[in-house]
């Protein structure tokens, strides 16, 4: 194994051992992953739906939807970060 990958392999093997030996850690990681996907995905789907609805509205409503989209970016990215 190359000298660059040895520390990474050591870190991953320690994490795998800890993860496999702790059902609490395993459950917590699974919960955080699912919660992040639901949080980020839920906000993204709701924003997409509102955007599709605004497509048929007038220019004022489309402008308001663009402003709302800017506010959705943070929760979507937070959810994705938690999922990762």
Short overview:
The protein is mostly helical and 84 residues long.
Please, could you describe this protein's structure?
The protein has 84 residues and is an all-alpha fold. Helices cover 88% and strands 0% of the residues. It has three helices and no strands. Helix 2 packs antiparallel against helix 3. It is elongated. The two termini are 27 Å apart. The model has no long low-confidence stretch (mean pLDDT 90).
Keywords:
84 residues; mainly alpha; single chain; 3 helices
Task: Walk me through the topology.
Elements: H1 5-21, H2 23-54, H3 59-83
Listing every helix as H and every strand as E from the N terminus to the C terminus, the arrangement reads: HHH
Quickly give the structural class.
Answer: mainly alpha
Count of β-strands: 0
The gyration radius over C-alpha positions equals 20 Å
- Let me know the average pLDDT: 90
Fraction of residues in β-strands? under 5%
User: Helix coverage percent of residues?
Assistant: over 70%
Poorly predicted residue ranges = none
Total of helices: 3
Major sheet details: none
């Amino acid at each position: 194994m190359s000298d660059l990958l040895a520390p990474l392999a050591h870190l991953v093997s320690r994490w795998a051992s800890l993860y496999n030996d702790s059902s609490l850690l395993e459950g917590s990681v699974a919960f955080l992953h699912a919660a992040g996907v639901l949080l980020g995905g839920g906000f993204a789907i709701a924003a997409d739906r509102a955007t599709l609805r605004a497509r048929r509205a007038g220019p004022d409503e489309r402008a308001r939807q663009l402003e709302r989209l800017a506010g959705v970016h943070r929760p979507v990215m937070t959810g994705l970060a938690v999922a990762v």
